Amino acid sequence: LRDHFERHGRDFGSKSPDDYAAQAWRFLQRARRDNLPMKIDDTDGTLRVFDPKTRAFAAYTGAGRTKTYFRPESATYWQRQPGRTVKASDLRFK
After folding, report:
1. What is the pLDDT of residue 83?
2. Backbone angles phi, psi at 69, to 5 degrees
3. Percentage helix, strand, coil for the chain under 3-state DSSP, each rounded to 5
4. Pick from 39, 41, 28: which is nearest to 79 by CA?
5. DSSP string of 54-90?
């Protein structure tokens, strides 16, 4: 967590590792509510989420734990991510 906070926390104005983690969790909740683009990687269960308006990207484990949360610099980053497109209603975790 500390490593990701140090590398990406400034992308979201995070004040601490706990703040960064909370922001990532809220992003997932908003993504589910607003039906943001999502992909599931069937090889390891990773859920990837992208907000095209803010360019925020996050990856979560199959249990919903944050793997990373940041704003990619590449305009094609989301398109290059593996996985099949899913809807929020398809997700198993809360």
Report:
1. 96
2. -155, 120
3. 40, 25, 35
4. 39
5. TTEEEEE-TTS-EEEEE--S-TTHHHHS-SEEE-GGG
Whether the Cβ atoms of residue 5 and residue 17 lie closer than 8 Å to each other: yes
Single out the residue of 4, 29, 31 nearest to residue 19, CA to CA.
Answer: 4
Predicted TM-score (pTM) above 0.85: yes
Q: What is the CA radius of gyration of the chain?
A: 12
Token look-up 């929020």 returns: 88
In the DSSP assignment, the letter for residue 60 is: E
What is the amino acid identity at position 61?
A: T
Q: pLDDT tens, position by position, for the chain (94 residues)?
A: 889 999 999 999 999 999 999 999 999 999 999 999 999 999 999 999 999 999 999 999 988 899 999 999 999 999 999 999 999 888 876 5
3-state SS, residue 83: coil
